[in-house]
Amino acid sequence: METVRRSLHAGGLIITVGLISWASGYPALFPSLGPTAYVLALGAEKDTNVPRVVGGHVIGVLAGLLAYHTLATGLVATDPAPAFSLSGLRIAIAGVVSVGLTTWAMLATDLRHAPACATTLIVSLGLLSTLFEGAVIIGSVVVLVGAEQLLLWADRRFDRGI
Q1: Are 37 and 93 in contact (CB under 8 A)?
Q2: What pLDDT digit, counting tens, does each position of 7-42 carry?
Q3: What number of other Cβ atoms are within 10 A of residue 23's Cβ?
Q4: pLDDT per residue as tens digits for the range 112-157
Q5: 73 vs 112: CA distance, rounded Å
Q6: φ/ψ (deg, to 5) at 15
Q7: Is residue 30 within 8 Å of 138, Cβ to Cβ?
Q8: Which of 107, 120, 153, 157 could be cross-linked to 60 through a Cys-Cys bond (beta carbons 3.0 to 4.6 Å apart)?
Q9: pTM for the complete prediction?
Q10: 43: region left, alpha or beta (phi > 0 left; psi from -120 to 50 alpha)
């Protein structure tokens, strides 16, 4: 029963952001939200701390934007690049730098959230690499965490029979 409850919990969190993405046409639903929903649904206290989740993704977005716009502007990892090309090297280095920066900053600030390393790659590889898209990513994380807090509040009220 617990497995079903946790699965529905994670899916419910993603539905929230999926509906916003669908209704707005913005890229509010992106791959690293899945692992974040999973971590939140499991309820591991140290991983679900709101500042860590939001802060980790903010760090990931900022590091990704910095790496992308410094090293790989105009490139997208999904566009085929010839083997050993300069453009392929630039996008690969942007990814490496963004993960290194994200890891360093999360450790330095104690805002550790592993799915943020996926977020930084999404940004630094040119998939969602504009300032607006970065803001959408952060907004989506805030919505996801807000939905989590609402579910936790409802669970507490239900458990008390209120």
Answers
A1: no
A2: 999 999 999 999 999 999 999 999 999 999 999 998
A3: 9
A4: 999 999 999 999 999 999 999 999 999 999 999 999 988 888 777 7
A5: 27
A6: -55, -40
A7: no
A8: 120
A9: 0.92
A10: left
Instruction: Give the whole-angstrom CA distance, residue 81 versus residue 93.
Output: 14
pLDDT of residue 162: 54
Q: Contact 98/68 with Cβ under 8 angstroms?
A: yes
Q: How far apart are CA 98 and CA 81, in angstroms?
A: 20
- Residue located via tokens 């690499």: 129
45 secondary structure, DSSP code: T
Q: Where are the alpha helices (DSSP H) in the chain?
A: 2-24, 33-42, 50-71, 86-109, 116-124, 131-159
Identify the CA nearest to 120 among candidates 145, 101, 141, 144: 101
> According to the model, what pLDDT value does residue 44 have?
62
* 143/153 Cα distance (integer angstroms): 15
- Could you identify the residue written with the tokens 């899945």? 34
Rounded to whole angstroms, the Cα distance separating 39 from 149 reads 13
Structure tokens at 106: 């999360």
- Give, in degrees to the nearest 5, the angle at Cα 32 between 26 and 37: 100
Length of the chain as a residue count = 162
Tokens of 2: 């617990």
